[in-house]
Amino acid sequence: MTYDCAIIGGGPAGLNAALVLGRARRSVALFDNSQPRNAVTHASHGFITRDGVTPAEFRRIAYEEVLGYPSVELLPWEVTEIHRNDHRFVVVTSTGKQIEARKLLITTGLREIFPDIPGLRDCYGTSLFSCPYCDGWELRDQPLIVVSENSGVFHMAKLLYTWSKDLVICTNGHAVLDNDQKQLLKSRNIEVVEQAVTMFIGHEGKLRQVEFADGTRIERTGGFITPEWKPKASFQGSLGYEVNEFGGIATNEWGKSSVPGVYAAGDAAYVMPSQLIFAAAGGSKAAIGINMELTEEDFV
């Protein structure tokens, strides 16, 4: 059997694409090895009708809806290789199983690379986060720290000032702020620390203190960390698609890549902003683009 579309990744982009294609009566192979990036998050926010939903509950509801369409098949395997065979894509998995599909949608998302700071992982997803739009409300009016090694920390500081006026900005040993930026932050009583963070101290995921390289500690109850983002999976070597400035797969407005038949959506394409609602919308648009292309081919 050759599927109309193989979707690589079962996050919000892949699931929403499978829903749209299933409703269009297209045969879909949905690959999902059940390792979502947001598994450590207690709740997802900013998605209307699902504000505060846990990632596990979101996936449960999504799969209940998606697999209600008989043409969508869940394949719980990791995809290790994809190559083109004539006018079909061959998808190979870690189990050795493989399928063929007319179209390919990559929705594998991102992986986060954090600074190697003791205690960070213990607090991440409970009191330390990466997205103010996702978790700023829950940390409102608390004493917060922002740790970032790039120049985007200045924008992050201004953004977070809406949620809390008690901010400490840490560049973790990197000189990424100019004097004008420091002065502006100082005028808002935002402290700037350029030392490296040596430890996050907390209990059961709840941050209490932050320790710096000189041994000093400050009291903080939460904060935001800027990770380095990398594609979770890359098939550029075998497929040859173009990438954008952020390392994601370059696409047009319908999710179509530079390679015929290859689409991408969600964090795998635009990288930022990394939000559930953006990813789901991107999956829907890509599915419509794929269905339109299949329709045109079927009427030749």
Order of helices and strands: EHEHEEEEEHEHEHEHEEEEEEHEHH
The top level CATH class name of the largest domain: Alpha Beta
Helix content estimate:
25-40%
Percent of residues in beta strands?
A: 25-35%
Poorly predicted regions are none
Q: What spatial form do the alpha-carbon principal axes imply?
A: elongated
Total number of distinct structural domains: 2
* Fold-level CATH name of the largest domain: FAD/NAD(P)-binding domain
CATH level 4 superfamily of the largest domain: FAD/NAD(P)-binding domain
Number-wise, the strands total 17
Mean pLDDT: 93
SS summary, helix count: 9
Secondary-structure class: alpha/beta
Radius of gyration: 21 Å
Q: What's the architecture of the largest domain, going by CATH? A: 3-Layer(bba) Sandwich
Summarize the main sheet.
7 strands, mixed
Distance between the termini: 21 Å
Organism: Paenibacillus apis
Keywords: Flavoprotein, Oxidoreductase
Cofactor: FAD
GO molecular function: oxidoreductase activity
Mind explaining what this structure looks like?
By secondary structure, this protein is α/β, with parallel strands linked by helices. The chain has 2 domains: 2-112 and 228-298, FAD/NAD(P)-binding domain; 115-225, FAD/NAD(P)-binding domain, CATH 3.50.50. Helices cover 27% and strands 27% of the residues. The strands form 4 sheets. Strands 1, 2, 3, 4, 5, 6 and 17 form a 7-stranded mixed beta sheet that branches. Helix 1 packs parallel to helix 2. The protein is elongated and about 70 Å long. It starts with a strand and ends with a helix. Its cofactor is FAD.
